[in-house]
Amino acid sequence: MSNSGWSGLVATLVAVAALTGCGGLEDEAPIQARTVTQPEPAVQGALGRYVRRLGEAAGRERCGAVAALVHSSSAPQDAERCRAVHSRLQGWHDPEAEQYGTGALVNFQAERDQLRTAVLAMDRNRAFRLLFVVDSPIGSQSGPARADYDRAARQAAAALAFRDCARFLAVAHRSVGVANGPDSVVCRALPTLGVARILQAHPSTRPQPLGGDGRFAFYGLPAADDAYYTMVMAREPIVGTDDGSTAAPRFVTAVPSG
Known about the structure:
258 residues, alpha+beta
């Protein structure tokens, strides 16, 4: 993940669960490293095959085929959400995919030559699935340094583990993701998030960098032998109008990948 690759974007979350909860901790407890085996990577060529399937599904008139390719944690629950996911992929062509451990990014051109990025993560079945789609305007290619992303990822994990909503809000993306809502709503549901429950049970878990392209950074959360989460971080503000030096890394979501 090079420091020069961090760029701005206009983001629209396709489907991330709404939050409703809060907790508190006065002092952040130290996070100790924990070694747990990462889920086996997807088989060779799996990402390419998934990208082809997603492109074929985007070209169909109905949204059902796309819905089947969405991550189990973000799957649309009604027809309206299904159509919203499908609409973001309309006009799909010229996709370029890059894998980062259990995460992946697919840059593609949509209708009217709009540049967009599909953000993927491995699901429990070791298959890549869609999390959300963002607009990717041409602009600054700079942004926060990797060290800043790493620090924010550790802070987010600690806040989730100790139900410290104030500290979580300080490092969470407020435009997209699980913290996209009023503080009271976010805080009420914080302890109910799957990743929060896992980290509460294993508070020594340290996020493991998987890579990224600057706009996004992926981290593995190996909290237990049977629980591995993929954390997604992104820069904020989501629209980069400067050289990126004032952009801040923020937690977007974390989903089960094993």
